[in-house]
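<instruction>
Derive structure tokens from the sequence
<data>
Labelled lines for chain and fold
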Amino acid sequence: MNINSIQKKPRSRLHSIKIFAPATVANVSCGFDILGFAVDAPGDEVILRLTDTPGVKILEITGDNGKLPLQAAKNTVGASIISMLKFLGSNQGVEIILHKKMPLGSGLGSSAASSAAGAVGLNHLLNTQLTKQQLVTFAMEGERVACGTAHADNVAPAIFGGFTLVRSYNPLDIIPIHTPPELYCSIIHPNIEVSTKAAREILSPSVKLADAVVQWGNVAGLIAGLMSNNYELISRSMQDVIIEPVRQQLIPGFSMIKQAALSNGALGAGISGSGPSIFALSRNIKTAEIVAQAMQHAYNQTHLNSEIYVSKINHNGVTIL
């Protein structure tokens, strides 16, 4: 990014802002680290305030059961803002209040939501005309703090809304993908926590060529299905032969829950991000609601609690409240 290429408007009179950042489903079965989409709920709320004292401070975090650090540099929302201020060459003071309204370690982009909210909110407060793709680079720094890897498959859809494809990381190239109008998402979140870092560490650094060929075909098929409103193509492309077979061992009852979704009309189902949440895509809201109930009924057999969410694909991404 070149700071000289940024267009700026006169300084906004706003000194505080409240932001909503949505949960996201990353990977979408076959697209590890490159595909994701946003949903309507759950999500995080963040309040940012400009101050005359330089430095980024987190004043309060709610909903995290004391698990998240108050040190700005070690928190995803703080890291995102610090990265952006450094790029801008600004010593602007910022105070943060973070309301976590989604579970941690859920596979629903909890860290990405906070990070994306910070980048988008500061951009709005400072009235700096950074593009969404530029904002993704700062939000990725929050992901680096959270799991050690600056990946964009959650922060990109959180900022852009809808489906996004990370075509390239070097240079970063985010491509918004058309969403078929009748597509709905069902999510079940088991009340267990899976660390993104741990879920990445169990993956093999190498992939068999035969598996890679299958995966490439599925990614291409899924993109083609989304772009052409071809629900049958979407369905047969939602197959992951590389990541899901490894990560499913971290999720009790995964195969049973996935089968429940498919047996009740889902186009496809898989692990949301690193898990333990499981998502399913359906062609209409009625089917999506039936699928959600079926997944929860199946999960009840594990004697663990869970929450379900049903949502249309969220096209707005991070919004100002």
